[in-house]
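Re-running AsmA domain-containing protein to confirm reproducibility after the cluster update. Everything else is unchanged from the original entry.
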Amino acid sequence: MGRLKLIIGGVVVLFVGVIIAGVAILKSTDFNQYKGEITKQAKAATGRDLIIAGDLQLDISLSPKVRVDGVSLSNASWGSRAEMVKLKSFAAEMKLLPLLFGDIHIVELALIEPDILLETDKKGQGNWVMGTAKEAEKSEEESSEGGSAPLPAVNSVRIEKARFTYKDGVKGEETSIVIDTMQATAKDLDDPLNLLFKGSFNNHVIELTGQLGSPEDLMEGEPLDINLALKAAGATFNISGKVAEPAKGKGLNLALSAKSDNIARLAEIAGAKVGKVGPFEMAATLSDGDKSYKLGGLNLKIGSSDISGDVVVNLANKTPHINVDLSSNLLNVKDVTPASEEKAAAKTPAAAVKKEGGKPAKIFPSDPLALDGLKAVNADISYKAKKLVVADFALNNVSKLIKLNGGKLNVKPGFNMGGGSFGGSVDLDGRKLPASLKINLTGKDLGLGNSLKETGVTDLIHGGATQVKLNLSASGKSVAGLMASLKGKTLVNVGDGKIKSDKVNFLGGDLVTGVLEKLMPSANSGEFTPFTCMVVNLDFNKGVTKFERTIAVQTNVMNITSSGQVNLAKETLDVGVKPEPRGDTADLGINAGGLAGMVRLTGPLSSPGVGVDAVGAAKAAMGIGAAVATGGLSLLVSGLTDKAMSDSDPCATALGKKSTAKPATTSKSAPQEKQQAPANPVGGLLKMFGSGN
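Result of re-run:
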């Protein structure tokens, strides 16, 4: 027994002596002599130059420390700068005993002022691709054959004053992330990992705090507890819950929430500037199943609007399937539309459309339809809203069903509006080119004025029950092709009501509006201009509509009709506007009808111009000449003739019904004999001067 103790003691002494001797040798060794070998091996592995400008320092103890300064790795030959990675200092502290058994246990890993550049060339190849393709494949095969090396255990990672830059050579865009400080620490391997990140993304401050499982859980792929909070651009995001299989991204059971006074500020992180949107609140859960992911219990509030429901993405089949079921009590488009975009859209006149090569810009793009997008996913989308507010119009009991299957898109919108209803379907078959489009939509008794009253707007339109029928079809390889082949009927019929006088500009451009206002004195004398009807009744064939008085407006003092042609294939229009006075307003010198015949809208759809109708101008000039020659007698004859030929019911004419045209009458208070035109206008004129019977 005594001899055994002596042997064991000797072995321990020998072992300790070897360790002491080894430590002494290591401490006396100049590791800088190995820098050349390290850089040589790095060159062989990556094809890049590794430069170690500073000294290699090794502090031998039960927790050995390694430190190296001035490290850089060269960039790809086509890169925008010489170095891909620059590092002021790298330090690592490890535990000695695990090293003796082939395990790596890092107490702390520190990176000081790393500057990392990731970029792609114009072909999209990244500078992180090193060596030849064959070398990369060989390395991958060796890695798979030899099995994966055990991951090192890490208690703490610290990064100070880091910069990560990404340059997209294809798009010419640059993104930068600056890390002031980042720490991930755990007291022991089975304790929660505490995270702290403070930095900026594209010059916007970002802060991340929370806990992420434990280092041991991360290394062994055990279920991971998550509790993180992110602050960016005035918004806060929270994620909490568990991931059962983090290595596979499966077993998700996470609660998500977000809050912001103005979510539009988040767009600034991406370099975009938009108006205020918010305040904003969101809550939901994220879970997964067998090849599926679900965003459930979604509860979203933006301003006064709300959206709730579920979104499920199923990846079980070759083509992903998305199922969306959402609803709202109230959704106001203004709540979710940036204010600056609304103003910009409102202030953009048609004449401001850019021209290319001296030619008017096209409205309908000629680019091939992106049908691959329709075939990339299948979807069933359902949305319901008790009230949807669009441009101050209130739509009630809104329902929209969207079905996308194998490239075939079917949309079925429906809603109630001011006591009326709207519904129908839109079908786009994009399985192959040319795509086919069918539109069948019907609106019955849509109350424009009543709809506006629901949102508190009472100073725009009163009344105006509207009928809508759209029955159109088209086929084409682009939007321009669809428009060029458009065929079918469009009808909008607005009933009795009144519109605010200063909103009469719906009748045309500024010049046309000015002419019409002069021809309708009551439009300026009162707050509202009454109208009996407004009709737009157009038939399209191969993208062209030729119409004769199938656009009409009847107000209290004026009948307005329009005739002409719109060519969607050539994107041109030639449309005349003809107002005709009603009642006493017809007793004008050179009547309003003569002036109206001179107003035409012509030119490209992107920037139409207001011109003079040559025929109407000639007619007016002849009338003036005749008036001079006859001493004014022709004016009377012309006025009486226009009265007799005028259409007292232009809306019926526009609808294709037989017009009950009657001579326009003067006011009811006038004596009956003064309302009737004399059979002989010359005799009537003499009678006015007391020279006839």
